[in-house]
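Example 3.2
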Amino acid sequence: MDSLANTIIEAHGGLERWRTFRTLSADLVQGGALWQIKGKAGLLDRTTVTVALDREWASHAPFGDPSRKTDFTPDRVALLSVDGEIIEELASPRSSFAGHSLETPWSDLQLAYFAGVAMWTYLNIPFLLARPGVEATELDPWSENGETWRRLKVTFPADIATHSTQQTLYVDEAGLIRRHDYDVEIAGNTPGAHYVSGYREYQGLHFPTRRRIFPRQPGGSSMREPLVVSIDLDNIRLT
């Protein structure tokens, strides 16, 4: 493993501790312009997200209506009743985004897919760096707001559904992630700069509880508006 990748994992609590758990749940509050742009304002303002740590799976409950929840895997996304009955489902969901731009509206199932991809990725990083097939290479440092951060380019294999094949992590002196860049392929490769803060310790692991995503400019700097997505997490539970 790349030495910086190992430093980041250790700073967040270590791989040995992480591998003692199989699922993570958290209370989730979201905002930002994206949900209105996609015609889905309000559906995921307040919910509980649960992700698997040993495979790619996620669920949001409730999903708008209190009687609905989501069931996401890379190959299928579904809306379920609280009893687990299928309301509707979509196979090969990523192909449904062909030709989309940032402004293209989403169906409920497409929103469920995006939310699953996003939160599974966010909550499993940085421990995904140790997953087979994930490649990591340190880049030149980056200076921003009077700080200098080390950078790690991450390349994901085809069997992981995430925002984009290549992503970049920005890391402070303590080994904690401060920024996470990617291009949202399913929204016309829209470039994002995702800032993380508010680290707290839960069950021996360290998680950022505040996430703010802004547009990223060609040179790598971020715009300070619009706020594309805001994410606040609380009550993180690992089992």
